[in-house]
Amino acid sequence: EPEVTQTPSHQVTQMGQEVILRCVPISNHLYFYWYRQILGQKVEFLVSFYNNEISEKSEIFDDQFSVERPDGSNFTLKIRSTKLEDSAMYFCASSRFRDTTSGANVLTFGAGSRLTVL
Amino acid sequence: KQEVTQIPAALSVPEGENLVLNCSFTDSAIYNLQWFRQDPGKGLTSLLLIQSSQREQTSGRLNASLDKSSGRSTLYIAASQPGDSATYLCAVKTGGGADGLTFGKGTHLIIQP
């Protein structure tokens, strides 16, 4: 079964460092998303991406964050200067179409990348 | 702003019992509602998706209902098994063209063998 792959599974970084989290979405999917989950908290929407541009972003997704699809397969989330509060599990997701209804157009999540900022 | 609440936060029951997980949301103008399962170290797995025009969806031992006007959904698990142990998340897609899902905090379910 096709899956969304995320790397690294766990990254530890020092405050102020840049971090890039990588995702390989399902090959025929067109919509890509990043969510995050701070330990013990809710999963929160960060950003959606379609046709090489941001479709929607939440208030969490400030200027410290950026996304891109550099080579047609990878989808990356960059945090420019990490803060302690960026420590979280970051989930990538993808879907074939924007409006996930059912069946073949489910929203598929990756296993997540755990980011620890010291 | 949409808020999603799940009750109970944790639940532990013996194997074989039927159980109900609850989800409520503040803004009834939703596009759809999904129930996910989250296992430690793994991603979120979509279990059931209910469109705003639907009342319920069923998949195997799982049945999810939606009462949009009252802002509530329930996930019914029949004949629970130890393999059902996981965190169950409810998420809504608000109408008006929003892409992102709004999640509840989840119910941590333990099925005792």
Architecture overview:
The complex is a heterodimer of chains A (about 120) and B (about 110). Chain A has strands at about 5, 10-15, 20-25, 30-35, 45-50, 55, 65-70, 75-80, 90-95, 110, 115. With about 120 residues, chain A is an all-beta fold. In chain A, strands 2, 4, 5, 6, 9, 10 and 11 form a 7-stranded mixed beta sheet that branches. In chain A, strands 1-3-8-7 form a 4-stranded antiparallel beta sheet, with no helix packed on it. The radius of gyration of chain A is 14 Å and the shape is globular. Chain A starts with a strand and ends with a strand. Chain B is mainly β. Chain B is built from no helices and 11 strands. Chain B has strands at about 5, 10-15, 20-25, 30-40, 45-50, 55-60, 60-65, 70-75, 85-95, 100-105, 105-110. In chain B, strands 2, 4, 5, 9, 10 and 11 form a 6-stranded mixed beta sheet that branches. A 5-stranded antiparallel beta sheet of chain B has the order 1-3-8-7-6, with no helix packed on it. In chain B, a hairpin with a 6-residue loop joins strand 9 and strand 10. The model of chain B has no long low-confidence stretch (mean pLDDT about 95). The interface between A and B is medium-sized, with 27 and 25 residues.
Multimeric state: heterodimer
Give the amount of beta strand of chain A, in percent.
Answer: over 45%
Give the biggest sheet of chain B. Answer: 6 strands, mixed
What is the N-to-C succession of helices and strands of chain A?
A: EEEEEEEEEEE
Question: What fraction, in percent, of the residue positions of chain A are helical?
Answer: under 10%
Category from helices, strands and their pairing of chain B: mainly beta
**Low-confidence stretches of chain B at least 5 residues in length (pLDDT < 50)?**
none
Main interface: chain pair and counts:
A-B, 27 and 25 residues
